[in-house]
Design a protein that fits this description.
Distance between the termini: 207 Å
Strand content: 35-45%
Number of helices: 3
CATH superfamily of the domain at 329-520: Spermadhesin, CUB domain
Number of strands: 58
Helix content: under 10%
Length: 855
């Protein structure tokens, strides 16, 4: 027997161990004012509170105290057996009551089916009001469930019993629900489903006018929404009113349709539908009659039930009605055909979100219409003001490939669009796509240049061009201006060019072309500008993407052509330097025509300004990998006139004029000198012992150096030279004016006879001058035929020197006469004065006549 009982005992022990191992234990802490209830749906599992001897187990457990409690389930999967209810009571008996209903313990009990209940109560005769945040709630049939599995149910407690107002989901047009006196709001969430609640506000509303009242905000059409009466599944029997208030947007029509109606068995009165349109129009119709259709404006529907007979198998009131809204008016229709324009696409957008514009593409409503390239589309516009629409177009151009030489591409022109479009073109974009590693050359039309719009000098032309790289980085905004300086822009890679009106309203007024495209081999920089500054004013150079800064590790260059006889002054007027993470920013300047040393600066160096360039030069800027801030530079170039060559020409002209003036003065002086000089110097020499020498142009046959005509017996200095000097000046001080610039003969003592004066004879050799100091004896020569003798030789010692003197001078008298008149004695000073003769400017050209008297 024991052998039979022992296996049974072992089995019972193992079963008990298995049951203990299947137990599931959790710890629950109810919030204040919250009741948590665990309800079993079958008897396969029980729930126990606490542990040890005080533990109690049952199929239902209610926790009300706000303290931690250990809950044990006698099964491993309690979520398959138990549901959890979390109840909260809200008493809103005051007018200022406003409570936000939030599901408590929302993060717990994920393995259970959860039901959150809010029991609501207000003053008698009032309604409790539920306000739902946008986008509100929408009503569904009781048999349906919400897409997110979070389903709300509203119940009203009446004298006749609870009435199910309806089931609701999130994201609908219902913004407010008012329920009579007392009720409950329930949120059901299946197990394993995340809680996605709509936190609604609870407050006390006005006096009750029916069992339920809903406020509905209908969106723009087309839109359709369903509504259901209370207790829709079994029917509503109480003689109560149900009201729906609808807000309809302008330019919208509405239509009410009763889709399913089950009339009650009325004992008194009848079921009626009262409509109020706006503030003045109201009418009443039966549920079986035609309801309002194609109406505009806000409206309300009040459904009044009769005193229905409530017996078994007799249905109550059930109504499912639909409200549809749609646009009013007649749409504008047009067709766009882009099959003949390669690469062209259109975009139409409503820029005013407050307008009532409805746009459709091929009968499908669109917020933004996009007509792809190479397609044909039917467009519809309803209540769309032209000023609210914006039409843009894009054309993709596949540029030809380039090998080693430049290729000329097409010019950028705006194609002709369909004139049936209801709006004019506002913006046009060209997308230039390269086939290989090439460079796009953008050049203005012949006879014009581009101007970059910068804060100091913006574009004031009819249109402007926004040039960008395809990855979104802007090169800059440009216009074709009379004062433009840019001859060419070279960009590496694909390019986007967008043209927009500047001082005009629409681009339809512009025909183009606007730019000429060229394709050249790939360049090393990202952008290269070729510019020619203006003489009339300064030129501004802005780095790409100004003022937001250049792209990391990108570079840009400017080739600046300077005209002859000008030099350029470069000034960096606005510089923003980054903090580099790797590499350095660099700005370098160098001449194009020579190998001179370049100037360069990095982000940690100060710029030397201004920079003067005598000839054409290049300006290069490159960015680093910035760690913070940006690299942006605005430069200013002004042309200055060169002055060196003109100064030399002016000085040469002035020098030449001065030389001509000097020559003219000299010629005038010479002419005047010759006019004042007498033509005939008639002179004679008195000879006491002979007859006078006839007058005429007699002269000595020999020069003054060969004869003795310059030797005097005696010279009276005061008589001879006294009138030449200043009477008040001492005789020993010579100012160099006594000689009037003439050479003076040397004095030699007379050694001939002193008692008689020989007569002058035609040929006489008796009388001679005894020349001392080694001079040889020479007889007195025949009288010369003229007195215009050559000028004596200058002394060896400069006559202007103070050291010049002749100690052999003695007190003699030189008697001369002119033209046969009386003797004119000239007294020469016999003292040993210092003579400083002064040369005349014309002494060599015109010798003066000499006069002598032989003693």
């Amino acid at each position: 027997m024991c052998s039979c009982v022992f296996p049974v005992c072992i089995g019972l022990i193992l079963l008990q161990i298995h049951k203990i191992s299947e137990c599931h234990k959790i710890e629950v802490s109810p919030d204040s004012g919250t009741i948590i209830i665990f309800k079993a749906q079958s008897q396969d599992c029980s729930v126990c509170k606490d542990e040890g001897p005080s533990q109690t187990c049952n199929s239902e457990l209610e926790l009300t105290e706000a303290q931690p409690t250990t809950v044990t389930f006698n099964c491993s999967q309690p979520g398959d057996v138990f549901n959890v209810e979390i109840n909260q009571k809200i008493d809103c008996s005051t007018t200022d009551c406003s409570i936000i209903a939030v599901p408590l313990n929302s993060t717990r009990f994920l393995e259970f089916t959860r039901t959150f209940n809010w029991d609501l109560k207000v003053q008698s005769g009032k309604v409790f009001q539920l306000d739902f945040p946008s986008p509100g709630m929408r009503q569904i049939k009781p048999s349906q469930s919400c897409p997110d599995k979070n389903t709300y149910t509203i119940i009203a407690y009446q004298r006749t019993g609870p009435a199910n107002i309806g089931s609701f989901c999130r994201n609908g047009p219902i913004s407010r629900i008012q329920v009579l006196y007392r009720g409950r709001v329930t949120l059901e969430v299946p197990k394993g489903t995340d809680l996605n609640p709509s936190d609604f506000k609870v407050s006390m509303g006005p006096a009750a006018r029916g069992v339920v009242e809903m406020d509905v905000k209908l969106p723009r059409g087309p839109f359709s929404v369903d509504f259901f009466t209370p207790d829709y599944a079994k029917g509503y029997y109480d003689e109560q009113k149900m009201k729906w208030n609808f807000a309809v947007k302008p330019m919208q029509n509405f239509t009410v349709r009763f889709q399913h109606y089950t009339p009650p068995q009325c004992q008194k009165k009848a079921v009626m539908c009262d409509y109020a349109l706006g503030d003045k129009t109201s009418f009443t119709v039966a549920p079986t009659e035609t309801q309002p259709a194609n109406k505009q404006g806000d409206f309300s529907l009040t459904l009044t039930n009769c005193d229905a007979k409530k017996v078994a198998n007799v249905p109550g009131l059930s109504l499912n009605f639909n409200v549809e809204v749609f646009r009013s008016g007649t749409p504008y229709l047009c067709t766009v055909d882009l099959r003949n324009e390669e690469g062209l696409s259109l975009q139409i957008e409503n820029k005013n979100p407050e307008s009532y514009c409805e746009m459709s593409l091929n009968s499908v409503m669109q917020e933004k219409i996009v007509v792809p390239a190479g397609t044909k589309a039917d467009l519809s516009f309803l209540d769309c003001p032209v000023q609210d629409l914006q039409l843009t177009a894009t054309k993709v151009i596949d540029c030809p490939s380039v090998s080693a030489r430049d290729v000329t591409g097409p010019s950028l022109t705006i194609p002709t669009l369909d004139p049936s479009l209801p709006v004019s073109l506002h913006q046009f974009t060209w997308l230039l796509r390269l086939q290989d590693q090439s460079t796009v050359d953008l050049m203005p039309l012949k006879g014009s240049r581009l101007h970059q719009s910068v804060p100091d000098k913006q574009c004031n032309e009819r249109v402007s061009l926004l040039i960008s790289e395809t990855e979104g980085s802007h090169i800059g905004q440009f216009c074709s201006a009379a004062e433009g300086t840019i001859q060419k822009i070279q960009i590496k890679g694909n390019v986007s060019i967008t043209i927009t009106p500047n001082i005009i309203k629409y681009l339809s007024q512009e025909k183009g072309p606007f730019l000429t495209i060229g394709i050249s081999p790939e360049i090393t920089e990202n952008v290269i500008y070729t510019v020619s500054p203006l003489i009339s004013g300064p030129m501004y150079l802005a780095t790409p993407n100004w003022p937001d800064g250049m792209n990391p590790s990108s570079s840009a260059s400017w080739i600046i052509n300077i005209p002859q006889e000008y030099k350029a002054e470069l000034l960096f007027s606005n510089v923003s330097q980054p903090k580099c993470d790797s590499g350095h920013t660099e700005v370098s300047i160098g001449s194009l025509d020579s190998q001179d040393q370049t100037q360069s600066w990095r982000e940690d160096q100060s710029f030397i300004v201004p920079v003067l360039q005598q000839q054409s030069f290049y300006l290069n800027m490159s960015n680093c990998e910035p760690k913070s801030d940006r690299f942006a530079v605005l430069s200013k170039i002004s042309l200055l006139k060169e002055t060196k060559k003109f100064l030399g020409i002016i000085l040469a002209i002035v020098g030449g004029l001065l030389l001509l003036v000097i020559i003219a003065v000299i010629v005038v002086c010479v002419i005047r000198k010759r006019k004042n000089k007498p033509n005939n110097n008639t002179s004679s020499i008195f000879m006491p012992s002979g007859k006078p020498v006839p007058l005429g142009n007699a002269g000595f046959p020999k020069t003054r150096a060969d004869n003795e005509s310059h030797v005097y017996a005696s010279i009276d200095d005061p008589t001879m030279y006294g009138y030449l000097g200043d009477k008040n000046q001492p005789t020993e001080v010579d100012n160099g004016a006594w000689s009037n610039g003439h050479q003076v003969d040397a004095y030699r003592p007379f050694t001939g006879p002193t008692n008689s004066i020989p007569a002058a004879m035609v040929s006489s050799t008796k009388y001679s001058l005894d020349i001392r100091e080694g001079d040889a004896f020479q007889p007195f020569l025949n009288p010369p035929n003229t007195f215009n003798l050559p000028r004596p030789h200058s002394p060896l010692i400069l006559q202007g020197s103070l050291g010049f003197e002749d100690r052999r001078m003695m007190d003699n008298t030189l008697n001369t006469f002119k033209s046969g008149r009386d003797i004119n004695p000239i007294r020469l000073s016999s003292d040993k004065s210092r003579l400083q003769p002064q040369m005349d400017s014309d002494s060599d050209s015109y010798p003066e006549p000499e006069y002598e008297e032989t003693m």
